[in-house]
Write a structure and sequence with these properties.
Helix content: over 70%
Radius of gyration: 25 Å
Number of strands: 0
Length: about 55
């Protein structure tokens, strides 16, 4: 009976390690995606420099 409890504890610990790795990978993916979105918005919103003033 003790062996089953030990095996269950080991499986739980391994599962927790696996979940932490998945969460870390997802966090990195979100960070990279957010940076890409910010870069795209900055690029899209920049004004073109020209010698002529814009007629609004």
């Amino acid at each position: 009976m003790t062996k089953k409890k030990t095996n269950a504890a080991v499986e739980t610990a391994e599962s927790a390690k696996s979940n932490k790795k998945k969460i870390k990978a997802a966090s990195v993916a979100v960070g990279v995606g957010s940076a890409a979105i910010v870069a795209a918005l900055l690029y899209a919103n920049r004004r073109k420099k020209s010698g002529k003033p814009k007629a609004d």
